[in-house]
């Protein structure tokens, strides 16, 4: 049982989709809000401060990319984007703007509900971990990664990471030196097994985002390495062992 009703903002200009999702998610114990265009979505977000946003790309007034960009200026709220079946570039672009995951239209409401549960569960786990005061702090070159405070700094300057980016970094660092398949990463961080090869593109884009924030030269990464034919691996530095503050 959830201690409080988690709030979900549904943004889609198709009334039928909004109605179906609003009904199903309300039955499952969530408090829901809807918006039919991008500007309204930003307004509702500011007013209601939802715990997760389901965001269509094709919206009037301000498209999903613009909404995602606006929300990421101030919040790490999880964002699941709804994308058209054939538009791979749409999915990738949505992730590059800061979305955490995507679901392809036409979609199964059950699939979307599973994605929502998985992402919110990870948020809950992160809160519980923080409360337990885990003391793992990693010093890696000019990086400091504090798993307790969920804080990353580079040369003493704080680096802004979304919740999913930190979750990805956490599994890479705690398993440094090990080759991690994309499917394993997706299951561990996002909470589902890929049904299609394209599903693992979520991992690739998030890896690219992490590299752009952590690496000295993202085009020639020294920390997050590509394991050819497998997935990714965090370089096993001699100083990778955590210490306790």
Note the main attributes of this structure.
single chain; 245 residues; alpha/beta; Rossmann fold; Arc Repressor Mutant, subunit A; 2 domains; five-stranded parallel sheet; five-stranded antiparallel sheet; 13 strands; 22% strand; globular
Summary, kept brief:
Helix content is 41%, strand content 22%. The protein is α/β, with parallel strands linked by helices.
What's the helix and strand layout?
Elements: E1 7-11, H1 15-27, E2 31-35, H2 38-48, E3 52-56, H3 64-72, E4 79-84, H4 88-96, E5 101-105, H5 109-131, E6 136-140, E7 143-146, E8 151-154, E9 157-159, H6 163-174, E10 180-181, H7 182-190, H8 201-214, E11 224-227, E12 231-234, E13 243-244
Parallel strand pairs: 1-2, 1-3, 3-4, 4-5
Antiparallel strand pairs: 6-7, 6-13, 7-8, 8-9, 10-12, 11-12
Describe the structure.
This protein is α/β, with parallel strands linked by helices and 245 residues long. 41% of the residues lie in helices and 22% in strands. It folds into two domains: 7-127, Rossmann fold; 133-244, Arc Repressor Mutant, subunit A, CATH 1.10.10.10. The chain contains eight helices and 13 strands. The longest helix has 23 residues, at 109-131. Mean pLDDT is 87; it is low at 127-134.
